[in-house]
Amino acid sequence: MPLDINVNLSASNITSPGLLPFSRHARSHFLPTIRNGIVTKSPIYVLGNQSADLDSIISAILYSYFFSRNGENEKRRYVPLVNLPDVPSGPKLRRLRPEFACALELSISSSSSTISMQKKGKDKDGEDGIVKLLREHIITVSNLHPEATGKNKKLELDCVMVDWNNLPHKSPQREEGKGSIEGLSDLVTFTVNGCIDHRPDEGFVPPLGRLPPGNPRVIISGPGSCTSLIVREIRERGLWPSSSAVNEKRPEQQINNEEGADWEVQLAKLALASILIDTTNLTAEGKVTDVDRDAVSFLTERISSSSSSLTSTGDGEWDRTAYFEQIQYAKTHSLDWLTTNEILGRDYKDWTESALSGEKRVIGIASVVRPLNWIIGKARDEDGESANTGNDELKLFLNKLKKFAAERCLDVVSVMTAFNGEAGQFTRELLVWGLKDDHNDTLEKFSEMAKEQLGLQKWNNFPVEGSHEHTGGLCIWQQENVSQSRKQVAPLLREAFTS
To answer: Membrane-spanning regions, if any (predicted)?
Structure first.
């Protein structure tokens, strides 16, 4: 697509451009226009949380695409921005987020067997096809950083938050709804224009009446996926009608033709990827709500009712379960390609809290889709150690975890694992490490506070529960209540270590 083409995404345009033309256009127009050091024209950046997981990335893309169809802001572009300050789009993004590469590739392909971790043919420039796809269509914070450097003063940019509702760096004047993110905190101040999130409201986003018109403030704790809430909001605004609604309104412009159907299938498949992964194909106990079920039903209907060639593969009708399993496979096996440090940082979030004493405490949680024993073995293999066992092997991992925490100035570091055990049962483990001596009592308080809700049981693989061999205190538990994810564990940790 030429860089200066006018992409018409108005709601009345039945044959909207596909996912790739939209993304390429956003990629080529993502910079604000700056004259004499002042931003004169800027897109609205749609920004997911710092873990940059599948839900955050796809939420940003979906929101950007459909709100670009909203006539209230037709003069402003919406640009999805992947919240990775040190990962540019391209080969590194593919290696660190292969499940997104897989979902993107599958959403634009009619193939039922595309797995982005497989080796691809290279083009004439010697570049892997999926790498080129990411480089030309996706924008990360790392891509934005050099463009914001060297300005006379901090840039003032607008954003919509998806899959979170509290920017980590507040404005020095504590202005309402203003702040920044890692990698841009010295260069950019974001003003929040709207928010959609499925976590508890942390009070950072201003009330709807004090937000600019045209964007929602939807913060509802409960749904398994933020993408589900975005699908609901898009539908309620009439930006993505059902097939029956479109056909009733415009019988002379049936949307189910090849030209107009591909974009719907692409967006529906991409949206389904994050919802199905976050809800384990709608089977995750305690995580699935009617919002998720309704979204999956609608998206599946849009795919099934379409005449697009992207809905079937020659082997029969499009298979939702097979689609989920391919993306899940890419996500699970992605860790084989990463270092221990990258594994810990891959799905990581932290919070800065004020204790009653006024002391600031930083709490970080890394989520990993492999058991602790696997991570410990990974750390051992990286150091070239022989097959150590017991606490000696654990220490190798803890040394790396301590370094990981120090790089992020953490007071408390936690690792949550979620995986299928040998018998196929879904399993969780929880490691919490208070890195200062005065955290010993706090760790015990957390244990008492969370024991019943999380179903904490002693982790028998190594005798380390309550160990004081390392500074502070370390506990590792088997978490019997597997319905409690980081969304539930984080508030408990934050309360225990600040009260």
So the answer is: none
